[in-house]
Structure formats: C-alpha cells, structure tokens
Amino acid sequence: MAEQKQKAEGQSAADITKKLSEMQAQQRQLQVTSMQRQQSEYEFVQTESAIAALETSTGTAYKAIGSIIVEGKPEDIKQELWNRKETVQVRIESFKKQEERLKKSIDEQQAELQKFLERSK
C-alpha cells in the first residue's frame, strides 16, 4: 500500500514537472509572439505614414531596394505600400489569435497545476 502511494506521488511529481515545463515553453512562445506582433504593428504604422506622405507629395517618389534607393512612380509605390499594409494587417491579426490561444492554454495549465498542488497537500 505504501509502495503504491509512493509510486503515485512520484508520478504526480513527474506530471507536475512536465506540465510546468510545457507551461513555461508556452509562456516563452507567448513572449516571442507578442514581440512579433509589436514589430508588425510598428511596420504597419510606418507603412501608413509612408502612404500619407506619398498622398501629399507632388514630386518624385523614391523607394529603397536593399541598400539602394531608386526612383519610382508615386502610384506604383503607393500600391506596393497598400499591399504591404494589408499583408502586415493580416499578420497582426494572426499574431493576436495565436496570443489568445496561448494565453488560454497557459491559464488552463495553471489551473491544472493548481489542482495538482492542492491534491498533493
């Protein structure tokens, strides 16, 4: 009987350790995803700013391609920026959904760990 209890406690400790490791990995993934979303939001704002500047500009437009700057048609550059803005917006929404899923999973794992800890007292 004592042997079974010790075996069960050992299994519970192993389960807790495993769940804790999984939760910590998800917390790290949440941090990475959050940073990626923030970077995308910054890119979105910068793209909007560039579009606004092009709309008020009447002169020649330039764009960076790698490490060089080339002249381009303002309409073409504006269209490229609109396409980039749409792509970044989709990416931001994807990051937000991923963050929500991770937060939900982390909350569930925390509740499960809390139950394990309460039962082992």
Quick synopsis:
This protein has 121 residues and is mainly alpha-helical.
Description:
The structure is a single chain. The protein is mostly helical and 121 residues long. The chain has a single domain, classed as Orthogonal Bundle (Helix Hairpins), CATH 1.10.287. Helices cover 83% and strands 8% of the residues. The chain has two helices and two strands; from the N terminus they run H-E-E-H. It has a two-stranded antiparallel sheet. The chain is rod-shaped. It starts with a helix and ends with a helix.
Name of the CATH class: Mainly Alpha
Largest sheet: 2 strands, antiparallel
Quick check: average pLDDT? 89
Given the structure, what is the number of helices?
Answer: 2
Basic shape = rod-shaped
Global Rg: 25 Å
CATH fold category name: Helix Hairpins
Strand content: 5-15%
Which residues form runs of ≥5 with pLDDT under 50? Answer: 1-8
**N-to-C SSE string, H for helix and E for strand:** HEEH
Q: What is the CATH architecture term?
A: Orthogonal Bundle
- Measure the end-to-end span: 19 Å
Number of structural domains? 1
Judged by helices, strands and strand pairing, the structural class is mainly alpha
Task: Please count the beta strands (DSSP E, at least 2 residues each).
Answer: 2
Query: Biggest sheet, strands in spatial order?
Result: 1-2
Helix fraction bin: over 70%
